[in-house]
From TrEMBL:
PANTHER family: 2-AMINOETHANETHIOL DIOXYGENASE, PLANT CYSTEINE OXIDASE 1. This is cysteine dioxygenase. GO terms for molecular function: cysteine dioxygenase activity; metal ion binding. Belongs to the cysteine dioxygenase family. It comes from Anisodus acutangulus. Its cofactor is Fe(2+). It comes from the Eukaryota.
Amino acid sequence: MVSPVQRLYETCKDVFVNSGPGVVPSAEKIERLKAALDMMVETDVGLRPNMPYFKSTTYDKTPKITYLHLHECDKFSIGIFCLPPSAVIPLHDHPGMTVFSKLLFGEMHIKSYDWVDSLPAEPTPIANPLDKGLEDSTGLRLAKVKMNTEFRAPCKTSILYPADGGNMHCFTARTACAVLDVLGPPYCDPEGRHCQYYYDFPLANISVPEEQKGDYAWLKEREKPEDLTVVGALYKGPKIVSSIFNLFKNSCRFLTLRR
């Protein structure tokens, strides 16, 4: 019997067969991968909410986040972020990627942005010049809020695209939670696909109605936040076999041993 994780892997292989920077899979393939993820729960990947990953060990620091690596190749990657309550994955981007995020359990707030290039504006953010290291308005770029929503499992998979759908996003754990992420293609520093972090600031001058100003913000690149701690841990759930042929071969071997 094929496990949900193996089924996810096989689906990803087909969906991302032509994966590359800026390449978005067809609508049919996106729906197929989304459907596979929508059905998955924490037990499918060997997780339980009472595991140590989901507990804060200190109360005076930002909770650390644990990352479980399931698979990575040049076409796609699969991994799980395990967040204790109040843990935050700061605002960051996914250059040239199509990203699927499935909340396996818990409650999480997601805020995401897309770049705006068509509205004239003067970069005059309402912010203390010394706040968050902002010393001037250099490098500010206008973005529009795509999502600012609370999610509670079970819920549907979120999808973002290279140029829309909320390519820059921030995760805040309201409770302990786990997020299964699929990226195609994966991050790759040598190819220029590194994770860029951002500050976001309220607006001052922009040619939109006053009531819509909350839908926009200025984003400014920043270094990786010093208080962000992501540690790797060994994934102990159902294993991924590199091909169905190997899976069939292993199953036959198991049945032979049982006899």
